[in-house]
Amino acid sequence: MSKDVSKKILDATLEVIAKEKISGTRMHLIAKEAAMTQSNLHYYFPTKNDLLIALLADIQEWFSKNRQQVVDLDRQTFRENLHAFFAEKKDVILNHKKLDYVQFDYWVQGTVDPQVRESFRQTFDIWRKDISAVFERGGYSEERIKMIPFLMVSLMMGASMQYLIDEGQFDLDQYFDAAEKIIVNLIDGSK
């Protein structure tokens, strides 16, 4: 499959899901958004589920590449890298809202579709492993910090959920400063 065609289809799928949610997404809507025939779309992605799994992989690739730009285990300190996770999530909330909206929709779809659930679960595994790597590089033992990645993901996704439903309710800078302090206070003395 041509990377250009695939990207065009995946971008169209993201747009449609952001507008219609997964439950309202239809192949003909994606084909229209991608400016192609539905039969051509089915040639590349025979089913909606194939397309959903491919989009989730594409979104994960975006997150991984983005994270590599802000987290640098070799050049940044532990605290700089810890801060980078929260800064990255704040950037997504403010500048890439569609990704968060679609991510929440994947969570819902994962409650009824085992294949989507497994693919979505793997995206969270990657996120938590990236967080764990920062802590391990910072000298924290895996046993001592095993729940920290789960807590950090919950704090970050909680920010998305609350902020995106009511953007004026709280200040993201204050929220993420508090979240970072919670994590730092939790790990103090755990080396």
From TrEMBL:
InterPro entries: Homeodomain-like_sf, HTH_TetR, Tet_transcr_reg_TetR-rel_C_sf. Residues 26-45 bind DNA. Gene3D superfamilies: Homeodomain-like, Tetracycline Repressor, domain 2. GO terms for molecular function: DNA binding. It holds the Pfam family TetR_N. The keyword Transcription applies. This is TetR family transcriptional regulator. Residues 3-63 form the HTH tetR-type domain.
